[in-house]
Amino acid sequence: MDVAQDTIKQVILSIINISDSLSWWSGERKGQAFNVSIVANNKLQHIVRKVETTMRDIHPVVKKQLFSLSCYDFLWADNMYKQSEEFLIGNPCLAIIHREVKRFLDIEEKIKGYPEVMELGCICLDYSLMKDTLKGLAGSWKSHYATILHQRVKDELHHVVQYRETVWQQLTTPVESLEQLNSILTLLEDLQDMENKIDEVYRPIEVMYEHLR
Questions:
Q1: CB 124, CB 118: distance < 8 Å
Q2: Residue 138 backbone class (left: φ over 0; alpha: ψ -120 to 50; beta: rest)
Q3: Closest-CA residue to 154 (of 195, 97, 194)
Q4: Out of 17-31, 84-98, 104-118, 170-184, which region has the weakest mean confidence (pLDDT)?
Q5: CA–CA separation, 18 vs 44, rounded Å?
Q6: Are 156 and 94 in contact (CB under 8 A)?
Q7: Distance from CA of residue 153 to its chain's centroid?
Q8: What own/partner pairs with CB < 8 Å and gap ≥ 24 does 77-82 have?
Q9: By three-state DSSP, how is residue 193 classified?
Q10: What is Dmax (Cα atoms) for the chain?
Q11: d(CA 129, CA 114)
Q12: Which residues pair with 118 in a beta bridge?
């Protein structure tokens, strides 16, 4: 902001100083440099002061707009891999991991909604580079957690399929002892209980795969 203020001031001074090499060619001011008259002009001085005052007044507004994006500082300041490792220590369920993916998706969409350029009085804030950078970082976080979710869903599905194959193998193995028979009967009881829970096992996996498409 200070740079912008100094630049505008320098532009004004440059315009004024253009007349350094020019002078009045007639009248009572003949031979006097235009610059002297321009600098002494009350209207021009009023405009210069007005520009300086406007720049000072707009400073907090510009600062507020810039700091409105500071809520996304964690996207570049935090260690994505370390944070996800700490997140997975608690062995979160699929729904919680998906919630993280959704959170970063929402952040990405919110950043997309920011204007490329914002006009604040005589100042234009170019958000394009900052916006593209933050959007890219949010996309990286989203993809990282989506990869974790995909792997977890894959592991869950593998576990379910492996369990089914183990059960099928046990059920199709010829019974040759009383111990095997008791084991099969226990397994059948477990399967009967599983019938009521089958949706609880498969449905979350199906839902997550739908989200990952």
A1: yes
A2: alpha
A3: 97
A4: 17-31
A5: 15
A6: yes
A7: 25
A8: 80/140, 80/141, 80/144, 81/144
A9: helix
A10: 129
A11: 12
A12: 125
DSSP per-residue string spanning 45-68:
HHHHHHHHHHHHHHHHHHHHHHHT
| 120 membership: H or E segment, kind and range | strand 117-120
Question: Cα(44)–Cα(55) distance, rounded to whole angstroms?
Answer: 17
Token readout for 93 is: 């369920």
Q: pLDDT tens across 114-128, in order?
A: 888 887 766 777 888
Amino acid (1-letter code) at residue 211 = H
The 3-class secondary structure across 1-30, one letter per residue, is: CHHHHHHHHHHHHHHHHHHHHCECCCCCCC
Helix axes 178-212, 128-172, angle to 10 degrees: 160
Q: 139, 80 in Cβ contact below 8 A?
A: no
The helix (run of H) or strand (run of E) holding residue 126 is strand 123-126
Residue type, 39: V
Structure tokens given for 109: 């969409």
Q: How confident is the model at residue 197 (pLDDT cuts 50, 70, 90)?
A: low
Q: How many residues does the chain have?
A: 213
DSSP bridge partners of 120? 123
